[in-house]
Amino acid sequence: MAAQKRHFRLAAVAALTVLGGAFGQAEAAQCGNSAAGFETWKREFIAENRGKVSATSLDALAGTTYSTATISADRGQHSFKLSLDQFMAKRGGATIVKRGRVLKRTNAALFDSIEQRYGVPPGPLLAIWGMETGFGAVKGNVNTLSAVATLAYDCRRSEYFTDQLYAALTLIDRGVLSASTRGAAHGEIGHTQFLPKNVLNYGTGGDLNNVGAALSSTANFLKAHGWQRGAGYQPGEPNFAAIQGWNAAQVYERAIAIIGRQIDQE
Length: 266
Description:
It is globular, with a radius of gyration of 23 Å. With 266 residues, it is mainly alpha-helical. It has a domain at 81-141 and 188-264: Orthogonal Bundle (Lysozyme), CATH 1.10.530.10. A two-stranded antiparallel sheet has the order 1-2. It contains 14 helices and 2 strands.
């Protein structure tokens, strides 16, 4: 009889453990792969974070919608699979070089001050600026908070973009972002397309739709990723690792290094 009672107690504990795990899972916002579960995920996320995140930012999150444009862009990044020559042609590498040289001359004082402070020369900054937004011509028109929330919900990279979502909510509290802020499809903003967490970590102050603020923040990002004043930034040289920190696609990294060199060596 004692053995039977002991077996019953163990079975009861095991059952409670399973139920506890089930309830824990039910309480966690579940990712999904279509628009169908987004509203449920959003309600669960808000409920989980009530009292941990400000009511103002959660109210902004409540107003977001599932961004089909974001999902389409996330699934369609085919240009990173091109050869270097194909990528340079598709992204207009020669045009970026030509325009970048002009902007280097017309904004010489700005680039001098950035290089003096961060050690980053104009070339890679202009290459990034040109590659990301065509020097500010195309910064995107997707609601930033909806984009980041959609990717936080989407199962493909949920953990990574949940961090970005918390950063975006912090930026809303600070007045850097608003519920109506618009930018690129993955939630990037400004002339050089900073994700929310990069704005928090490397933004130097000011609106990233301002050229000076955007370029200073980009130089600060590169410096924080190991940029060494005066060192080279081609593959195999010390500063190439900082460019790799900006974007993980090898063809993009190499294009930035080539375009930057052609601008700097004018």
